[in-house]
Amino acid sequence: MWKQFLNKLPRKSSKSDSVSTSSGCADNAGAQRTNSLNDVSNRSTAAVKRMSSAVFPSNVVSGIEPFLSFKDVPNQERQNLYISKLNLCSVVFDFGDSSSNCVEKDLKKQSLLELVEFVSMVTSKFNEPAINASCKMFSANLFRAFPPNCHSSSSGGENDDDEPMFDPSWSHLQIVYELLLKFLSSSFLDVKVAKKYFDHAFILRLLNLFDSEDPRERDCLKTILHRIYGKFMVHRPFIRKSVSNIFYRFIFETEKHNGVAELLEVFGSVISGFALPLKEEHKMFLWRVLIPLHKPKSVGVYLQQLTYCVTQFIEKEPKLVSTVIRGLLRCWPVTNSQKEVMFLSELEEILEATNMVDFQKIMIPMFRRISCCINNSHFQVAERALFLWNNDHIVSLIAPNRDVILPIVFPALESNIKNHWNQAVLNVTLNVRKIFSEMDEELFSSCQKKYKEEEEQRATTEDKRRTIWIQLESAASLQPMSGNTPVLVGSAAAPMTC
Predict the structure, then answer these.
(1) Which stretches of sequence are listed as region Disordered (predicted)?
(2) How buried is 455 (Cβ within 10 angstroms: 0-12 exposed, 13-18 middle, 19+ buried)?
């Protein structure tokens, strides 16, 4: 269709065509918009006027030539020209082949830039045909199937250093996204009319684009989704439900999605706007979505955004802290040291927003887990757990409850001093031990005495067990073997070779 248009356009010479083609295929990110707008402004007005409307099929334009400039038509005809250009820009090209349709791609880019400029400077409300044509153009250009993922965030951070995949059509997609954002942001967009076209089907297909491997596209999408959520209040419940479904599929089925971090970033600002008291629906989102999002191996990719969403809930309703920490303890990655360090960092952020009453509800199970982390043979886990005592707010929560917390963590501290291999961990352990000693010397001495008694009792129990085994081995060696009598092989027995 584009070739039919171009064959009938007036041409100056083959030399000018070759120049136009080469400039159309060149990608200069820094001067892209300026050069394109200059190309449009430098077109000969006489050449544009010589275009006949008979060149363009009726299904492409609405009674007006699409290559006319907006300044060349009266104000009452500009929305018709806007629709005409939108229909022209609905034609999609294959950007995987950089040598095909270069002139057509260049003309489409120039038309898109003109549309962006028009929407930025419009002075009257968009009529319903213009809104309909805009949605059709956005759908034609943006909604597409992605190729199979070469690498995904499902790898648990192993592929974090991989180069991102960039869409070859981004030079055009970027302008379409900018047009969509300016269109949604326009004060001349009638929300009551627009909600019929920016409907559930449109929103659902827009959400599917968050799985794009191009980080530039995902960055544009999060801004647009936030604008749609703010503009169309009637669609807010549907957006929340649809995003929850994306998370459910990611958590419980695929563990593959490229846009989890961006979706959480959008929801971070949404959660901050929730009214108090929180609705049950919003609490269910915390329990059923945000807490289980800690389970996937790739949590490190989006942990920062996830932590922000969780802390927003706690700031809104502090009593939720016990629910959040118990959820974290259920998801605790006991066999993944890298995730364990991340969990300890998140735990510190949550505790910074915790008050004394809520802290007392969960301190016993929480410090049992922290004690295990202190004794972890991986030095980063042990060191990160001990760094919690560098936080003044956490120490202020621990101090009034030291009679409960110190007996839990004291054995772990003493075990580290005796057995841990890493010198940095030993130094931090001694600092924490000193903090408790200065906090309550009497309690510290009591815990130390109890620990020594338990160690002596444990040593006595071990000696008894070892003595019993020696006696059993000795008795078994003197017992004559007959029939199917089992034989207890002692340490002095000859080794078995395979």
Answers:
(1) 1-38
(2) middle
Tell me whether residue 295 is in a domain.
no
Kindly tell me the burial class for residue 446, based on how many C-beta atoms sit within 10 Å of its own C-beta (0-12, 13-18, 19 or more). Answer: middle
| Domain region containing 439 | 358-466
143 within a domain of the structure (yes/no):
no
Residue 37 lies in a domain: no
Structure tokens at 176: 């379409």
Q: Residue 148 in 3-state DSSP?
A: coil
At 391-433, the pLDDT tens digits run: 999 999 999 999 999 999 999 999 999 988 999 999 999 999 9
Whole-prediction pTM = 0.78
Coil, strand or helix at 455: helix
The three-state DSSP-derived secondary structure of 58-75 is CCCCCCCCCCCCHHHCCH
DSSP 21-84: HHHHH---TTTHHHHHHHHHHTS-HHHHHT--GGGS-TTT-SSS-TTS-GGGS-GGGHHHHHHH
Structurally, the chain folds into a number of domains equal to: 1
What are the tens digits of pLDDT across the range 317-366?
A: 999 999 999 999 999 998 899 999 999 999 999 999 899 999 999 999 99
